[in-house]
Amino acid sequence: MAKKPEDRYPSAGDLATAARSAITPVHPAAAPAPITTTSPTAPPAGPPALPALPEAATSTSRVPKTAASAPPVAETAGAPDVKVAVSAAVVETVVRPSGEPTVVPTPPPTRTKPVSRRQRPLWLIPIAATVVVALLAAVIVGKRAVPIQEGVLTGHTDWVSGVATSTLDGQPIAISAGGDKTLRIWDLHTHQQIGTPLTGHTSDVDAVATSSLDGQPIAISASFDDTLRIWDLHTHQQIGTPLTGHTGYVMSVATASLDGQPIAISGSDDNTLRIWDLHTHQQLGAPLTGHTSSVWGVATTVLDGQPIAISTSGDKTLRIRDLAKRDRR
């Protein structure tokens, strides 16, 4: 019996059955990899092979990847060419009736790296800190950059021969000594005299120094009446009796601390210096001698941890005195 034309070629169901029979059961493998198999080149027994389909007729099926590795492809006689392409995400099977198999790689899915916030360069930190400090300094200096009021302090009725500074109620003040036998206290902000003059000397007041006695600001004045006097700067009153002992004009005075106690050192026209206890108003030890002319000036400081006095004289010399030992150097 002659075959009908439609029996000469395999049906679509036959092709699908042949493609399924080419894949064997799943076996685990070390790692997924593309596997390509080629059927024998000899023509299979049975019905004649279909002519090669055009490229557009190629059928492609995509199967999601499972946890197991991709199965190998077994060679089956009479089956059409089968190509299996395995990737990290998709297994692609391409079935073609004939022709050389080709591998169609499927690229793995790409993951985009999360975008992190852009970090500022660390070298900007010290620059920013410097700018902040400079701005703060400019603000502080700007607040303090008030021009000093220069001026003239008037009130004495004779020459002014000495001046010293101190603080009274937190405000800077000056204390002046004059030939009018008085001392005067001045507010350095307003340039005005504070209170009444300090009176008591009977001759010109040639020098003045300041110190603190029992926590209160005081002034010590030296006069041509051969005495020194201690003054309370708050009350403008003399404290205790005058300091006496010099036999000539007292021309200079300075203050220091000896064994933790406030003292005064005076220079006189009698060519000597004398040390005074400001609490008792008594002279400490013997006069410091050595100059051959009037002692016009005296100052104090600390040398190697010891209080010293430096005196100036009309004999064209300066002398350094150790106030603790009170011997001439």
Structural commentary:
9% of the residues lie in helices and 36% in strands. A four-stranded antiparallel sheet has the order 1-3-4-2, with no helix packed on it. The protein has a four-stranded antiparallel sheet with strand order 8-9-10-11, with no helix packed on it. It has a four-stranded antiparallel sheet with strand order 12-13-14-15, with no helix packed on it. It folds into two domains: 1-24 and 57-104, no CATH class; 160-322, Methylamine Dehydrogenase, Chain H (7 Propeller). It has helices at residues 12-21, 124-144, and strands spanning 35-36, 59-64, 81-86, 90-96, 160-168, 171-178, 183-187, 205-213, 216-223, 228-232, 237-238, 250-258, 261-268, 273-277, 282-288, 295-303, 306-313, 318-322. The protein is built from two helices and 18 strands. With 329 residues, it is mainly β.
Tell me the layout of helices and strands.
Blueprint: H1 12-21, E1 35-36, E2 59-64, E3 81-86, E4 90-96, H2 124-144, E5 160-168, E6 171-178, E7 183-187, E8 205-213, E9 216-223, E10 228-232, E11 237-238, E12 250-258, E13 261-268, E14 273-277, E15 282-288, E16 295-303, E17 306-313, E18 318-322
Antiparallel strand pairs: 1-3, 2-4, 3-4, 5-6, 6-7, 8-9, 9-10, 10-11, 12-13, 13-14, 14-15, 16-17, 17-18
CATH architecture assignment of the largest domain: 7 Propeller
Rg is 57 Å
Strands of the widest sheet, in order across it, are 1-3-4-2
Structural class: mainly beta
Q: Total strand count, please?
A: 18
Task: Tell me the major beta sheet.
Answer: 4 strands, antiparallel
What is the CATH class designation of the largest domain?
Mainly Beta
In whole angstroms, how far apart are the ends? Answer: 153 Å
pLDDT averaged over residues:
77
Q: Count up the domains.
A: 2
